[in-house]
Amino acid sequence: MHAPNPNPKRKPAKKRRSAFSRFLTGLIGWGAALALLAALGLALAVALTMSSLPSYQELMKSPQGQSVVIRAADGTELVTVGPSYGRWLTYREIPTDMVEAMKAVEDRRFDWHPGVDPIGMMRAFVVNLKAGNTRQGASTITQQLARNLFLTRDQTFIRKIREQVVALAMERKFSKQQIMELYLNRVYFGGGAYGIDAASRKFYGHPATELDLAQSAIIAGLVKAPSRYAPTADPERARGRAKIVIATMVDSGAIGPAEAQAANVDLVRFVVDKDQGDVRYFTDWVLTQLETLTDEAVEPLDVTTSLNPRHQAAAEAAAAAQQIEGTQLGIIAMRSDGAVTAMVGGRDYAKSIYNRAVTARRQPGSSWKLFDYLVALEEGMKPDSGVVDQPVRINGWSPRNSNGRYLGAMTLKQAFALSVNTVAVQLGQRFGFDSVAAMARRFGITTPISTQPAMALGSSEVTLLQMTSAYASIAGGGVEARPWAIQSVTTASGHTLYNREPDNPRILVAPFVAQYMTEMMRAAVETGTGRAAQIGRPLAGKTGTTSSNKDGWFIGFTPELVAGVWMGRDDAKTVRGLAGGQAPARVFAAFMSRALTGVAPTPLNDQVELPEYASEPDAEAYGLAPGSEFGSETAHPDPGRLDPSLVPDSAPPPVKEDPQVLTDGWIEDATSGAPKQ
Hints:
Elements: H1 19-52, H2 56-59, E1 68-71, E2 77-81, E3 84-85, H3 96-106, H4 118-131, H5 141-150, H6 157-173, H7 176-186, E4 193-194, H8 196-204, H9 213-220, H10 226-229, H11 235-252, H12 257-262, H13 280-293, E5 301-305, H14 309-321, E6 328-334, E7 340-344, H15 369-378, E8 386-389, E9 408-411, H16 412-417, H17 421-431, H18 433-442, H19 464-475, E10 486-491, E11 496-499, H20 511-526, E12 540-545, E13 551-557, E14 562-568, H21 583-595, H22 618-622, H23 639-642, H24 664-671
Parallel strand pairs: 1-5, 3-4
Antiparallel strand pairs: 1-2, 5-10, 6-7, 6-14, 8-9, 10-11, 12-13, 13-14
Helix pairs in contact: 1-6, 3-9, 3-11, 5-6, 5-7, 9-11, 14-21, 15-17, 15-18, 15-20, 17-18
Pathway: Cell wall biogenesis; peptidoglycan biosynthesis
Region (Disordered): 620-677
Domain Penicillin-binding protein transpeptidase: 336-592
């Protein structure tokens, strides 16, 4: 027998779990339980929602849609924009290119996700987290359809959850083909068109069954922002967006590189209704603003605008009366508070809906000198400060005057009136080209601005709307004139959704600076390059001409009205006789004469009363002789002696009740001897 083991082995004691381990296990357990409850709750919500969804046949019924009546300031109806619905197309009738384009740009994983896209949601979360704000969304086509059919556009978390639930329910009730069919027949594509058939007929003049790849890409690109990308608002932006869609289709494998290359969106031509007048340039611009003022998408709207019918008629008459072959033009009129009272965006809206008054970016030429001289005035110069027109060379570049001569010593006002290039560049060099750019930014120029020396002569592209509003700020005594068009928005039931309140005054420059600038612009019209714009009443303005006469500008104002005119070719080719002091100035004069008929003339605000802090002599304020850097201030030559073509008229022409109609012969005769800027 074996003796008992005196030291029997004991089983090791069971280690107790740490508090953290128990907490983690509990957390996982509770998390799993909550996740299960959430899944059950989601399943129940989806089931209930699915049972309450209308039938497919009910969803196919086109709604009445929303109409928008746009009125002039006096209540006159300008246009009624209502929704249009084309023929309902079955999935089999919809071109494959249209379906694939929409999938590629809006929902690449449409064919396999259950209604929401987890991958897209994670990607959007990471992108937005890095950006610090919402840069990217993750809504699927089904979610967009759910929102358009059943929900509002409120940007709330609850609405987003409801949208996802409805999307999941729709995916359970309807097939993928049915959802795509519903989406392409019901989504809004801009220009009042709902559904691809209405959009195709609106933009191309044929049914959607005939869409090719390039046309399909344009339509697919509109969903992101219909009012911004619609061809009725901006054809070039629509084409640019379509190129992104085609590139996305290649990236997703929907089409090959060869197909993408063959789909040339630049060759796509748009059509418009033949009975639409040129006021549609204005009303299209109004519609782009309306979207930012209200999210009402069902009840009919009544929109009152700032447009003055008499001003609009005058602008259209001035635009139509002259026909320089191959040219287009833009005209904008506004009050000094920024209220746009007339707009012409081209010669014929029915032939070209591209708005050259709002969208086109062109070089402003010497009309840009407004900013050069504003900097000089703000820095302490005055209209009678001495400057010198002389050769200038900066880093190998030398500006030259349009007449090829240098006129020597003159005053700042004379340099502006004669549009002397060398002086403008000297001002930019002295006070800083960055300062000129900053001044332009202050006055509402948002397009890219070069700070190279040539910028002082208007080498950076701008829009007519921006430049006209900048001049309106001078007309308003240095107070910002931010362009606006919508006065009020009401529903058909009489509920006011928006009523414009006057902006809080934002002072851009001191009043005496604006008054000095007005004094110099008045000299440009009375004795300088803008003499052709005279209308027999106090007027200030500035011409602008780019190299080789590719662009001609005239922007000016009376105390009652500000107007800007641009003329040129869309292909930026040279146009004979297009100097700003010629045809554009004459168009300006024809417009203003008609627009202001019956309005009593009032004096310009160009009588300067300096505040105490600015009333001391320049020499005391800056420690140097006035104008010493530019030349003697005592030399104030007569413009007629410097250049005989610039002798002031003996008297401005009288205002006629029925102004002379602009014709080709009249323009050529009247402008053949006008000074070129």
